[in-house]
Each structure stands twice: as structure tokens, then as C-alpha cells.
Amino acid sequence: MADPLYELLAPYFDSPASPRLVPSVQDQVTAKYLNRLSTLPLASLTSSEPQSLAQSSHTALLSLQSLSARSNSALVASSEHLSSLRTTLPQLATEAESLRNDIPELDEQAVAFSEKYCRNAENEVLDRRKKALLMARNVDRLSDVLDLPTLLSSAISSSTAQGPSNATNYASALDLHSHIKRLHLLYQDSELVNSIYQQTEEAMQEMTSNLISSLRAQNVKLAAGMRTIGWLRRVAPELDGNSSNGEGSLGALFLVCRLAALVSMLSALDPLRDLADQETAIRLRDGNSIKKGTDAWSIGQQTERYLKRYIEIFREQSFAIVSMYKSIFPSGPDTTASDDLGLKFKSLGLRSVSQPTPTPQQQDPLSPLPSALSTFPLHLVGLLTTTLKQYLPNVRDKSSRESLLTQVLYCAGSLGRLGGDFSLLLADLGQDDNDEEGDGHGEWVEVMKKHRVLAGKLESLASGGSVRGMKGLADGRAKSPNEVK
Length: 485
Prior knowledge:
The protein has about 475 residues and is mainly α. The protein has helices spanning about 1-10, 30-40, 40-45, 50-70, 70-115, 125-135, 140-145, 150-160, 170-185, 190-215, 220-235, 250-265, 270-285, 290, 295-300, 300-330, 335-345, 360-365, 375-390, 400-415, 440-465, 465-475, 480-485. It is rod-shaped, with a radius of gyration of 55 Å. Pfam families: Dor1.
């Protein structure tokens, strides 16, 4: 039905009255409309159908106008692109032909690149790139590792600024040093780790110097000394070598540092010592004429002041050094420092000390050295006796001499409680080189008798509950016999 109807209506197209193209019979819109016309009654073809077509045409016209208003720029651009297709398509075909010709060469280059930079092949450029990528992925870890020497130096500097009593950051510095040592053991071939380890060792050497310097301070308490020695054992384990007394070289180092502190404290008495030297020069110049004069008391007054202060400092510091040493370095099982010290004093014939039977280790001349404390008190006593022999003859007043000798006896008793009683070494101190009567030993015997009487009285006071007397006995303060009475 549609085809005869199409044949009937086709002549009306492309006519002067209606100059339009003839629609194709295969067009779906045309076929659909012809099918619709076949269903309409004849009367509607002249009445309602023209109005319906006019309305549809008007609606389509409005839609086209609205579309052209909205898509004006797109339509213009599409028109321009459509006009340029005549030149673009031939150019695209030419470039596609060129690309097709270049594909074999590109394939050869890709194969060559793949063979050159293969993972299994050794290539310097590829290795550098791999290292760069690895560093980029681990930049945070590298930054933390590079900051380790700075953190270590900061911890050491802050601890040094706080002083030996408040050096709390030394423990953190030691932990950092242990961590860096572990890294060095794990990555010995790494130049970066080796560089960090070298910087760390320099910082630890500085820390070792600071710790040793802290041992030379004047007022080092037992707790601070034990902490410092403990840190030195971790920082410099080579100083804590194997030895029979279990102290290594740290014991000798500790005694040397404390001796330097004692010498520093005694050097503060140089103004008084200069006055005592002047009195010594006067005594040596005038000889025994001072003894017969009327200014025997005034000529030794400055020397007495110097010796009193010297003996007081010596007593306090010597007792503190030896007691602190014994607390920090306990004696070993084979031999003790006090036994060694007693043997040293007995070898001088000064005190009857029970000598233990020498062990095979002690008889062996190649055995490890004894404790440093075995000879240290002898050096201390040598400093004291040298000073007393040099300046004690300047003091001519009997009560002043007895007061000084009594103070020395208290010092010997104080050190004697630690195994270093040197009272018999002082027997020759009372003998004056210019003393014609030779009553120096008699003076010493008299001082010893008075000292024993005073010691007995103090012991009786201590046993009777006198705290004051006990404290005086323990401190060993030097007083003249008249002052004690």
C-alpha cells in the first residue's frame, strides 16, 4: 500500500510549486508517514492533516531556531572543520604512511634499548639510576641516619653544660653510640655509615675527655663518681681491661684525676705558701739566732697558718679519695688493696701487719700489676711529709708545733681506718736539722702520749653516748692539747 501511495505523491516533489528533493522510499520516516496516511479517512486529508503538518513544521522550525541559537559557535566550528577536511585528510594519510615506514626502525631501537638496559645486564647508568631511585624511596631513613652524629654531639654538649652532677643526657648519648656501632657492624661496606661512625668516634672521644675532666672537679660525690666510672666503662672499654683486681686502668685514672684535684686545691694556698717561704728564707739566713731571740712565735706564724690549712685539706681529700675508690672499685678475691698497702708499709718497718701467704700469682714476676691503691697512699704521704719537713722547722712555738703534729696524727688515724696508717712515718718530723740538743724524738714521743690520752678520752665520751665526742673522733680535727682540755 505504501509503494503505490509513494508513487502517487512523488511527482508533487521537485516541482515549481514545491521545489524539494524527493524523499527516498526506504527512509523510515517516509515509510512511517505513508503508513499513517493509509490509515486516515479521506475527509481528514483535507481538513485536519494540513493543520497537523503545519503545526509539526512550525514546531520543527522553532526547534531549529533554538538549536541554532544555542549551538551557533559549535556549528560554525563544525563548518570550519568540515571545510578543512579536504586538506587534513591527505596530510593525515601522508603522516600515517611515514609512521608506517618508521615503525621497523623504532622496533629495532626498542629491541636495542631493551637489550642494553635489561635487569640482568651490567650497566653503569642503570646502576646509578637504581641507586637514585633507592635513595629517593628511603630519603626519610637517610635523613634520620645523617642526623645521628648531630644528636649525639648535642646530647654530649648539653650534658657537659649541665655539669657532672646533672649529666643525664650521657645515657642517651651512649644509647645512640651503641645504635651507630650496630649499624657499622651491619653495613661495613657503606661509605656513608663509615663516615657517620668516624664522626661518632670523634664525639665519643670528646665525651671521654669531658668525663675524665669531670673526675678532676673538686667536689665530686660518690654517686657522681660511680656514674662517671660506669660511663667510662661503656665509652672506653679498653681502659677496663682484664686484671686481677677487676679495675683495669680506670682505677689508676681515677686516682690520678683525684690527685690532680687535690693538688689544685692545695695550689690555692700559694699566697700562704709564699709567706711561709719567706719565713723559711729568714730561718735559713739567720740560723739558730731566731731560736734565742724574742720573736720565735711571730717568725713561724704564717707557716703555722699554711700548714694547718694544708693538713686540713689533705686529711679531708685523702680520706675521700681512698674511701671513694674502695666504694667504686671493690677489691678482688685474690688480693685486696688494703693488704697491698699493709705490705708496703710493713716493708718500711713501720707497722706490724699480718702478711698473707704469697700466692703463686703473686710470686710470678709476670703476673698482672696489683691495684693502683697499693702505692697511691705512699705518694700522698710523701707529699705530706715533704711539705712538713720543709716548713715545720719554721714553727718554733712548742704549743703550735704540738697542735700541728696532733693534727697530723688525726690525719694518719683518719687514713688508717682505710688501711693506710702512716703515723710511724712521722717520727722524724720532730727532729730539726739545726737542733743541737736533739730532743726532736722526745717531742714526738710526748705528742704521741698526749694524742693517745686524748683519743682515750674521746673514746670514753663516744661510748658514754656523747655524739659530739664521736663526731670529733670521726672527723679527726686537729686541736692543741690546751684546746681539748
